[in-house]
Design goal:
Layout (H helix, E strand, L loop, with lengths): L14 H12 L5 H21 L3 H4 L15 E2 L6 E2 L1 H13 L7 E2 L3 E2 L5 H17 L7 H21 L10 H15 L4 H13 L16 H21 L16 H5 L26 H5 L13 H14 L6 E8 L1 H7 L8 H4 L3 H11 L9 H6 L2 H6 L2 E5 L1 H8 L8 E7 L8 E3 L9 H17 L4 H12 L1 H6 L2 H6 L4
Parallel strand pairs: 5-6
Antiparallel strand pairs: 1-2, 3-4, 5-7, 7-8
Length: 494
């Protein structure tokens, strides 16, 4: 037989895919901490989506492809009147969730935002709940939504722990598509084979490039990419439920699989990785670790590697606000990931460019004492030349200890330190913040602030009595978990 002839024996599904399917189907969630975090995550994520509806660049994307389309039992988009098929509703929910870069974050070898999966989860759950009710069956409850959130967080986050997609130029929203495909297929009643088929198709889709997240091409695609990913997962889940076959060795197939095609090079030197480095590595199995340790963006709508830098800047604001023109230099001591992802000099082209620039996210609170979504807009930036003046005086220095502790499992710090030096030779003290308010180590301090953030965001869209009803329901663990999904979504429609 010729050495070039392929042996056409269909393999079993790759073990990575089998493990995901078995986790989704069999794992029983018993962690009350995970459920509490999921409730907080639900509030925070929906609040971020409601806040984004204030921005026309976001809302221009929303609504049915064909205006006037009527969809029986269609999934709703919170804060709007849209009722659409679950695929487009997932896109819209995912888009508003991510638009302002204000929802939760997971930082490891790969980073990402696990609550992006709520787009697909909520759209599918709302559709299924309405459909069941219309057929006289028991509705799907919000506990199922929380369980799907915990499992989607875990799938995305555990894969990210040891496997860096950004280092080979790929975007983390691939993991949203994979995680969403698994959990929404299960919500639809999928079997093990159907879940594996959907997950395999998610891997076959490959990955978007990270081009739109980095200078000189940073732009608004990063604000809707996750919505696109979770929406695609819903489409793949639906296809799998209709009997579409999977692609069993999508990861490991020689030459044509994901490992060889997309995971085999490094950006650093473009040399082919050794064979043993092309496959995913796992330091732990799937459980509830990610939801329990997820990072909430509570203080600032800013890329997470800069959250502590912005907090340092707010602390320094009273000392420097009257001496901004006297500043000689600003030294930011930070970790390697922040330097690689969000450190940039030169003109910033748009809001998406600004909210991924550590220098900008430090300059604004130094000068103005806070950092809010409107501070990234063109009008604010152009009206305040002091921002770029401060950016031009910044020096970014890596602290090896910060870089190391960023990756240590028992720490997962996101540290930044800032010191301001003046032209007369004086300086401020160096201000250091190792863990942001949204970190697990600051949960006691952070959750009341998260709840306040949710209340403020609700008030941007609903009257006071509706805001109170929604907040009270979300705070009541037992009542929330037993609430039918369609009744929960009723509260969010205007």
């Amino acid at each position: 037989m010729s050495a070039n002839v392929a042996i056409n024996k269909r393999p079993d599904y790759d073990q990575v895919i089998q493990d995901i399917a078995d986790y989704v189907l069999k794992y029983r969630i018993e962690s009350e901490e995970a459920f509490d975090s999921a409730r907080n995550c639900l509030m925070d994520t929906l609040g971020c989506g409601l806040l984004a509806l204030r921005f026309p660049e976001c809302t221009k994307h929303l609504g049915p492809i064909v205006e006037g389309t009527i969809v029986p039992n269609g999934a709703r988009v919170p804060g709007t009147q849209f009722r659409m098929d679950p695929v487009k509703s997932a896109w819209d929910i995912g888009c508003i969730i991510r638009w302002l870069d204000y929802n939760d974050t997971w930082l490891a070898a790969e980073w990402g935002h696990p609550s992006d999966n709520l787009g697909g989860i909520l759209a599918v759950a709302d559709y299924l709940a309405q459909k069941r009710t219309s057929e006289g069956k028991a509705s799907l409850t919000m506990r199922a939504v929380l369980e799907a959130m915990i499992k989607a967080h875990e799938i995305q986050g555990v894969i990210a722990l040891e496997n860096s997609f950004n280092r080979v130029g790929l975007c983390h929203v691939l993991l949203v598509r994979v995680a969403s495909a698994a959990v929404v297929t299960q919500l639809m009643g999928g079997s093990r084979d159907q879940i594996m088929a959907a997950v395999s198709q998610a891997w076959v889709d490959g990955s978007a490039l990270r081009t739109y997240r980095h200078a000189p091409n940073a732009g608004s695609r990063k604000s809707w990419a996750a919505g696109d990913a979770t929406s695609r997962a819903v489409r793949l889940a639906d296809m799998s439920m209709r009997g579409e076959m999977g692609v069993p060795s999508v990861l490991t197939a020689s030459q044509w699989g994901f490992y060889d095609v997309a995971f085999s090079k490094t950006n650093a030197d473009q040399k082919i990785k050794p064979e043993q480095d092309r496959e995913f590595k796992f330091s732990q199995g799937y459980g509830t670790y990610v939801m329990e340790n997820v990072l909430f963006k509570i203080s600032f709508p800013a890329e997470f590697h800069a959250q502590t830098a912005a907090e340092c800047a707010v602390i320094l604001h009273p000392q420097v606000k009257d001496r901004l023109t006297d500043i000689d230099k600003i030294v930011i001591r930070t970790h390697e990931s922040a330097i690689r992802i969000i450190s940039k000099v030169g003109p910033l082209a748009n809001a998406a460019d600004r909210d991924h620039c550590i220098q900008y996210m430090t300059a604004v609170p130094l000068a103005f004492g806070n950092l809010v979504a409107e501070h990234y807009e063109e009008s604010f930036h152009n009206s305040n030349p002091i921002i770029d003046a401060l950016r031009n005086k910044m020096e970014i220095v890596e602290d090896k200890g910060y870089s190391r502790e960023y990756l240590e499992a028992d720490k997962r710090s996101i540290a930044n330190a800032i010191q301001v030096f003046f032209k007369d030779g004086t300086s401020t003290e160096e201000v250091v913040v190792e863990y942001p308010v949204g970190h697990r180590r600051r949960r006691t301090e952070g959750i009341p602030l998260l709840e306040d953030k949710f209340k403020v965001n609700l008030a941007t869209r609903f009257p006071a009595n509706r805001c109170a009803d929604i907040f009270d329901l979300c705070k009541n663990k037992v009542k929330l978990e037993s609430t039918p999904v369609n009744e929960f979504m009723d509260l969010f429609i205007i």
